[in-house]
């Protein structure tokens, strides 16, 4: 399978205002590289604040990277015109707020086709509804008349309405209950068979177990481990991946009891491993630098290897 989308050494630093004249810089994403193949579900897993959404936003061209680039089939995405929005689409966490409440489902799904001047729209809307298993009778309803799962199917139908090559799905099941969650996740696996890849962004490492082909684990804006689902979930190498798998659901970073030595926090964040403070296998070198290794085809950023 050839590479569809390449994220190359991507960094995003936000400038945060600290009063009238002062500001600070926050590195949300730090030199992240990965690629998504054709016909693949690639999961980006990390806790709240780890930088997942920022990466998704850059891929969707909603944010400019500070450094690095993103390429679709070898072309820089910022040099591509409107055709990029046909090839890469998005599904977000809360369908109710992302769907126009005044439009009927039919119009919501049709809208991107109108924008891109597609013909034969009625038939295509029905074809897309079928693809996402949305009952035809729901096409004449409005979003508030649907269940959470049905609404997310509408959002996915809209995302596939132009037959994209990639869907960026940011926490697409976070607002759904367990049974519906499973059905929606399965849908992404089915779309893969139709040639549509998915970047699945999630905080729940277990959610990707069913459908992801490969996954990348991100912490504090840095890639910790990346490999096939089997490699990363069955034989995790990075202490952070192990920690994530052992602590489901993971405590919010603010709830963890970690004693930080304030004077050295910045130093470690600048040069060393961001997981240093929680890692039970840390060595002195982790304060200063991180070794990047490829072990049996999987990427690990850790001084243990
Ligand atoms: N526009 C912004 N300005 C300043 N800081 C930001 C901005 N957007 C995100 N951040 C910060 O960048 C970091 C990464 O945020 P991001 O939303 O990408 O993380 P996430 O892993 O998707 O988390 P969540 O699941 O909570 O959204 C966080 O510390 C966040 O506070």
From TrEMBL:
Q: Set out the biological process GO terms recorded for this chain's protein.
A: peptide transport; transmembrane transport
Supply the NCBIfam families for this chain.
Answer: oligo_HPY
One Pfam family per UniProt: oligo_HPY
Name this polypeptide is given: Peptide/nickel transport system ATP-binding protein
Tell me which PANTHER family the record gives.
ABC TRANSPORTER, ATP-BINDING PROTEIN, TRANSPORT ATP-BINDING PROTEIN
Q: Which residues form the ABC transporter domain?
A: 8-245
Keywords in alphabetical order, please: ATP-binding, Nucleotide-binding, Transport
Cite a single GO MF annotation: ATP binding
Show the PROSITE patterns listed in the entry.
ABC_TRANSPORTER_1 (PS00211), ABC_TRANSPORTER_2 (PS50893)
